[in-house]
Amino acid sequence: MKIGNIEYPDKPLFLAPMEDVTDPAFRLLCKRYGADMMYTEFVSSEALIRNVNRTQQKLTIYEEERPIAIQIYGHDPVSMAEAAKIAEAANPDIIDINFGCPVKKVAGKGAGSGLLKDIPRMLEITRNVVNAVKLPVTVKTRLGWDEDSKIIVDLAEELQDCGIKALTIHGRTRNQMYKGDADWELIGKVKNNPRMKIPIIGNGDVTTPERALECFNKYGVDAVMIGRGSIGRPWFFAEVKHYFKTGEIKSLLSFEEQKEVLKEHIISSIRWIDIDENKPLEEIYNQRLKGIIHSRRHLAATPVFKGIPNFKETRIAMLRAETLKDLFEIIDSIHL
User: Fold this and answer.
1) Residues 6 or more apart from 90 whose CB is under 8 A from it?
2) How many other CB atoms sit within 10 Å of the CB of residue 333?
3) Is 277 helix (H, G, I), strand (E, B) or coil?
4) Which position among 30, 101, 162, 215 bears the catalytic label?
5) SS (H, E, C) 246-265
6) Which pLDDT band, with edges at 50, 70 and 90, does 255 fall under?
7) Which of 24, 33, 114, 253 has the fewest CB atoms lying closer than 10 Å?
8) Which pLDDT belongs to residue 155?
9) Could you tell me which residue, 21 or 275, shows the higher pLDDT?
C-alpha cells in the first residue's frame, strides 16, 4: 500500500491522531513497538496562523517517527490552506485534514465532523489544502452526521475527486460520538466501491489482535488505524503484528516490563512538557509536574493492572500522585 511515494508493509497499523495523547513521547513508544504511521495531535488552523506557542509545539516531529502526518482542522477554506502551508514547512510526510472530531468545541464551530453538515464547504477546504501544498493530503472523517445521513460512500468519491491520496473512516456518525459499535460494513462498502482508487484506512473499536486481522480480511481495508486501544499500552502494535505472523495471542512483555514502559512514558512526558531533556531527573524528583498529570489518561486506561484484587485504593493513589517520587513508589509496589 502506498500514500503518495510512501510505501507501507503488508497490513499496516496506523496510530490514530488523538488530542492530548499523540504527542512525541507517546508516538515514539508506539513506533518502537511497530506502528507504521504516526499522526500528531490535531492542530487548529486559526491558532497556527496566529502563531500560538502551544499549537506551534504540536508541529514538533522527530526523524525516528517517520512517516508522520500533521493533522489540521478548521472551518475556513482560506485559513485551512494557509495553515497547511505552515504545517508543510515543519517537514512532515503528509498533511491530514480532520473532518471527524465530534466534540462540541470543534464540531459546534463548523470544524471537524461539523463539516458533515456542510459538504460543499468540506470539499472546498479539501481542494484548497490540496492545491496549497506539495505533500500528499489525506482526510479523516466519519460515516455522516447522524443515523439518517450516513453519506460516506458518496462523500468518499467526492473527496477523492478533490485530489486526496488516502481516506480514513471512523465507523461512527458524529452523533454517536464514541458510543455504540463502529460500523465496519460501511467502511468495507467504501473500500469495495470500484470507483475508489485511493487507499482506505479503517478506524474504530480495534482493541484486540483478532479484530485487527478481521478488519483486513473481512472488509479489505488497506490499513487499520488504532486509537483508544493503544492508550496505556503502546506495545499493543507489537502484539497485533505477532498475531498476524503466528496466530498466537501473547503478551510480549512481562508485567514488570510493562510497568517499566509506563514509567518510561511518564519520564518522556515530563521531559516533553516540564524540563529540558538534559536536566537530571533527580533535580525534579519531588516537584509537582505537568507531565505527570498529562500521563494520567494513560495510567487510567492501561490494562496492565486489570484483574489485580483490591486494587481500587492503589489506583486512586496512583492517579492522585503529583511527584515522580510518589508515583514511581506506587507503581513499583504493585505486584501480581
Assistant:
1) 59, 60, 61, 70
2) 10
3) coil
4) 101
5) HCCCCCCCCHHHHHHHHHHH
6) very high
7) 253
8) 98
9) 21
